[in-house]
Amino acid sequence: MDQKIVEGGSDGGAALMPHPDVATSSGGIAAGVLMCLLSMSSIQFGSALSSPIINAYGPAGATWLRLVFASAALALIVRPKIMSYSRTQWLGVLALGTVSALMTTSFFSAIARIPLGLAVAVEFLGPLLVATLGFGLSRQLLWPVFAAVGVLLLAYDGEEWVGNLPGILFAIGAGAGWACYILLTKKVGNAFQGLEGLSVSLLVAAVVSTPFGFVSAVPHLTAFGLLEIAGLALLVPLLPYVLEMVALRRMPTSSFGILMSLEPAIGAFAGFVILSQPMTPSQMFGTGLVVAASIGATVFAGS
């Protein structure tokens, strides 16, 4: 389970290539922990800061603009050898790129309608369920159940349901996309060297999102808006790509899986700080359940 749960980041976050657990020094692990925390913070605070962009250009437009800038920047760095890839490699990046575009659009559509913490928690159920089902119908299935209870607590503030059906459905779609993204990332990671597969899949994602995002975004673009989008594209996803890739070379994947479990809590905190989305004690407890379920699924994966 360790391997599966850490191969992708939320909101199309860092596509983590498989790395074996290796012996690392305490200093290396400490640096890796710091990089992981910075990466997750970048993803969640970047999502929160994307709210004005989503309002201005729509979820599809915001997705397209971010993918265009991120894919162009990474392609300039990696310079993928596009003409040298096999049919199998192309099928892998085409599938991964398509899923990435749909997943990100769904997530942006969700956070435009429901609180960020709730959206991240619902989305997190996707990879958690995939990782748990990898061990068959056993007591490991209790972890997604605990997480689902946490999501229900997050969705109710003591007086009313804070989410709406379209927002929840988009978050579920993002979670399903994330689950597929994890499996596809493993395949693409094994088929390419370095970041080439990631770079080409981002280019594919930008192309796939163009028919939906171009019309939504272009009529409203301004010079300042372009600069803002470029900055957000560097914050999410390029910075997390670099931080998580380096972190996995400094620490075991099992440790990374436990740290990644903090993402729903960081998302809730980012929603509170950036978007002024408060949480009741029961919602905080719900967030804790999601985090605890993720940690439990990671720690007891082999039991």
UniProtKB/TrEMBL annotation:
Membrane topology field: Multi-pass membrane protein
GO cellular component assignments: plasma membrane
Pfam annotation, one family: EamA
Keywords noted in UniProt: Cell membrane, Membrane, Transmembrane, Transmembrane helix
Claim: Transmembrane helix is one of the keywords in the record: yes
Membrane-traversing stretches: 27-45, 57-78, 90-108, 114-134, 141-158, 164-184, 196-215, 221-243, 255-276, 282-302
UniProt-annotated location(s): Cell membrane
Highest taxon of the lineage: Bacteria
Record-given protein name: Inner membrane transporter RhtA
